[in-house]
């Protein structure tokens, strides 16, 4: 496409908002000729599923100020020459010159190579984009490219692989009961079949009774015993404090998908900031600063659609959750299969399951609150966009590198809602979450409440109550009388 001044201005505005380049956009000042690292960037974009755009004549160090280039025709010719002569296979470049603020800027769009032609290499190295930089691909990433080529001609079913030594005796009974009930209700052809036949025909087990990887991951009591990377690691990234810490509340979650989803969402909710939202009727309603329904959709997608091959699962690549002052990042091993980011972002119905059996199993499972893991209609990403827009937040970003998929929910909306003030306390500098507030209110109304009583008074699940109590217990606001896990243990306010 031919870029216009308005399009370039819009893109620079987005880059200023994120304070840096993106996975798909790279800007360079290039005042004194073509930068030496242009070939690495072109090579990296060529290996991306959607390619990328290189912009010359913009100074990132000065808040993306337009600096211009002295001879745009020579710059365009130089970029095309680099692509053709220095990179193999050579990607296609489409160049244009845009005048902005009275200065000339060169824009080069790098088309992605076809899967069967990847990876592009420069001086023997294959490059890939990550965040705002180019890096040399690791061996396991190169192997993933080769596996992706096989997907073009062969049916690879990682989730159907047997897990030696694991049978239906190793699944959580309640999850299996829910699964069988929902499957019989949804599929009349299986309604009168035995439990064993349904489990076999739907990919939970194999003919010899062994669990498949899909069955273990979806319903197994402890999938991480065989595959440690089937967990979730979450952390809050903070500016380095006096003790040198860079993360807070680092947690590793284990269990099958429903429990992973529940515990991850409890962690997210406990670490989000509670804000005041003024409704149209003038009432103040507390809510989290990022929409939980959007986060739940993205976390569920990451769990169900993550790559389960030996080049991710076999080397310890797990789902990663990072909460920063700028937003929430959900990173899933493996790229998209059978669908592009553009299709996901469009209003068209886009649906493609990386793990078909795991996907179908997950549609029949529920979390403790009765909510479905995934709806299976292929429109969940649009719901994410709608939730962010309703919260007046920037549009979420989806990034596919072919070896990793990242979803980002950005904080800092166009109009910042007022943050709920909390009583000053050196012991608890962080704002209270919504569930913490509910628990504290219940304990103010009635002291010495058991875990069961707290669930009944608040309407929260056992996991939500435990997560909401964690920080008040650590800070000393709430004390526990009795042993952890004992039925007679009660909780009360410390003052």
Shape: globular
Average pLDDT metric: 86
Q: For the CA atoms, what is the radius of gyration?
A: 25 Å
Determine the N-to-C terminus distance.
Answer: 66 Å
Structural class: alpha+beta
- CATH domain class of the largest domain: Alpha Beta
Q: What low-confidence regions span 5 or more consecutive residues with pLDDT below 50?
A: 413-431
- Give the biggest beta sheet: 6 strands, mixed
* Count of individual beta strands: 21
Total of DSSP H or I helical runs spanning 4+ residues = 15
Provide an overview of this structure:
The protein has 495 residues and is of the alpha+beta class. The protein folds into four domains: 5-137, Methyltransferase, Cobalt-precorrin-4 Transmethylase, Domain 2 (2-Layer Sandwich); 159-225, no CATH class; 228-410, Heat Shock Protein 90 (2-Layer Sandwich); 434-493, Arc Repressor Mutant, subunit A (Orthogonal Bundle). 34% of the residues lie in helices and 20% in strands. The chain has 15 helices and 21 strands. The protein has helices spanning 5-18, 38-46, 72-86, 139-151, 173-186, 195-201, 213-219, 257-271, 292-305, 341-345, 356-363, 380-390, 434-445, 451-458, 462-475, and strands at residues 25-28, 52-56, 58-59, 65-66, 87-88, 93-100, 103-110, 121-122, 125-130, 133-136, 232-237, 247-253, 274-278, 284-288, 319-323, 327-333, 397-400, 404-410, 449-450, 478-481, 490-493. A six-stranded mixed beta sheet has the order 12-11-15-16-18-17, with helices on one face. A hairpin with a 2-residue loop joins strand 9 (125-130) and strand 10. Helix 2 crosses helix 3 (72-86), helix 8 (257-271) packs antiparallel against helix 9 and helix 9 packs antiparallel against helix 12. The protein is globular. The N and C termini lie far apart (66 Å). The relative contact order is 0.09. Residues 413-431 have low confidence and may be disordered.
